[in-house]
UniProtKB/TrEMBL annotation:
Residues 1-46 form the BHLH domain. It holds the Pfam family PAS_11. GO terms for molecular function: DNA-binding transcription factor activity, RNA polymerase II-specific; protein dimerization activity; RNA polymerase II cis-regulatory region sequence-specific DNA binding. GO terms for biological process: circadian regulation of gene expression. Residues 69-129 form the PAS domain. This is Uncharacterized protein.
Length: 293
């Protein structure tokens, strides 16, 4: 009984330590009541923020009820042929949406903590660095002026694309197909200089951008397919749920896109095809596991 009690206390202390490390303002050493108190405060603030957002921003009536917010956002990004990226003042990529894979050939996990300038041709880096220095430098008078008058802006640049084959070398799109090489970055700046002493810390400055391919490659892909063939394009998540279904599918499979979005593809496949599709699904999961979480 004494051993089990010691084991239980040890597990409890480890959980408290891990919880303290996850807190936004976690210090190196905090006692248990402090950790629990700050955790309750964090969840309470998070809950109040969610309630306020739900109250002030009711869900739009045109959003399908069977789609989660994440799936709906993904569908919008796919339809707009763009992806969302968050870049810190140093150029480090802190977030990128899943739709980057279809446009640049990278998984989001491959781009996180990478530097955006490494994916921009050298002759275009100067303009981008100038933009970062003027709009995101902490304490810069020019940055403050930009943040007041023009938080939203856009620019065009080329971005490096990854090969589908992980062993292949990366290349700049501009070297292969000029019409499809240019991206438009619609950016908004957030954060700023540190707050007053003793006050809540200000978030670090960053740029949030929606990145659009100027010439839609989706239209190009559709036009290259044989119109007479019984073919359509669909996109799936790693759980094999439908994320996208193009306009050619209904006459072939008898389902409208809104009927299958968010549902599992396995609900529609013939039993004779399950083995090959399952193998393809496993290969996709294995490929991502090799690339990391």
């Amino acid at each position: 009984r004494i051993r089990s009690e010691k084991k239980r206390r040890k597990q409890f202390n480890e959980l408290i330590s891990e919880l303290g490390a996850l807190l936004p303002d976690g210090q190196s050493r905090m006692d248990k009541p402090t950790v629990l108190q700050r955790t309750l405060h964090f969840f309470s603030s998070h809950h109040e923020l969610n309630v306020e957002q739900e109250t002030n921003e009711p869900p739009p009536p045109w959003k399908p009820a069977f789609l989660s917010n994440d799936n709906f956002t993904q569908l919008i990004l796919e339809a707009m042929d763009c992806f969302v990226i968050v870049v810190m003042s140093s150029g480090e990529i802190s977030f990128v949406s899943e739709s980057v894979t279809s446009l640049l050939g990278y998984l989001p996990s491959e781009l996180l903590r990478q530097n955006l300038f490494d994916f921009v041709p050298e002759h275009e880096q100067a303009e981008l660095r100038c933009l970062f220095s003027t709009r995101l430098c902490v304490g810069s008078a020019m940055a403050v002026q930009y943040n007041k008058n023009e938080r939203h802006f856009e620019l065009c640049c080329h971005l490096q694309r990854g090969e589908v084959d992980p062993s292949g070398d990366a290349y700049y799109i501009v070297r292969t197909c000029v019409p499809n090489s240019l991206f438009r970055l619609q950016m908004s700046s957030f954060g700023g200089p540190p707050g007053v002493p003793g006050g809540p810390p200000r978030p670090p400055p960053c740029l949030v951008a929606s990145v659009h391919l100027l010439t839609s490659q989706f239209i190009k892909e559709l036009s290259s397919l044989e119109e007479a063939g019984a073919e359509f394009t669909s996109r799936h998540s790693l759980e094999w749920k439908f994320l996208f279904l193009d306009h050619r599918a209904p006459p072939i499979i008898g389902y409208m896109p809104f009927e299958v979005l968010g549902t599992s593809g396995y609900d529609y496949y013939h039993v004779d095809d399950l083995e090959s599709i399952t193998q393809c699904h496993r290969d996709c999961e294995l490929r991502q596991s090799k690339r990391g979480p």
